[in-house]
Amino acid sequence: QVQLVESGGGLVQPGGSLTLSCTASRSNFRIMPMAWYRQAPGNERDLVALITPGGGTNYADSVRGRFTISRDNAKNTVYLRMNNLKPEDTAVYYCNVPGGATPWGQGTQVTVSS
User: Fold this and answer.
1) What was the pLDDT predicted at 88?
2) Out of 15, 17, 40, 107, which could bridge 91 as a Cys pair, Cβ 3.0 to 4.6 Å?
3) Mean pLDDT for the chain?
């Protein structure tokens, strides 16, 4: 069964930066589109960014220009670089294929607070 393991979250001040990582335990990772989602308390899980197997990217309006998604197929890993973080970015961040068809990992908590 595929496993997704997210890491890199933490507490950061507004305006700060973090880089999240997600490693997938599947051999066909390189042909899979991947996405980052986030879920704040009381809210639904929302799509933040996605990346195609060829490296094409798309972002939610709320993070465009501040977040960058990338991937390293040799490491079965997708990254999310988050700059100029805002309190409203506080959430648990998850990775998955677009649509969430793979079992969800535990996520990684990002808290933006002064």
Assistant:
1) 97
2) 40
3) 95
